[in-house]
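[Meeting: bench + compute handoff]

Bench side (C.D.) handed over the final construct sequence. Compute side (W.E.) agreed to return the predicted structure before the next meeting so the bench team could plan truncations. Sequence as handed over:
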Amino acid sequence: MANLSKGGSREPFTSDDLITKIAYDGDNPEYIGRAQPGTADSEAGWQIRKITYSGDDPTSVLFADGKNEYINVWDDRAGYSYS
């Protein structure tokens, strides 16, 4: 899999090479972020997903701004639109 590196060049890396952050809404995970190690929370380079729920049941996993790319800022996760 090739993705954008922090410097803008394309580099192959796998999901095993990434760090993962999870933000909770009460007891449920709401956001999942993945980035290369060393990417600051305030820096572009995150792939962010949002989990939606119906009651306690997860119903979908959506991407920030509808893009499966490592271009978002973890600290800004609540301000993105998800699809």
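W.E. noted at the follow-up: The chain has one domain: 11-76. C.D. will use this when planning the next construct.
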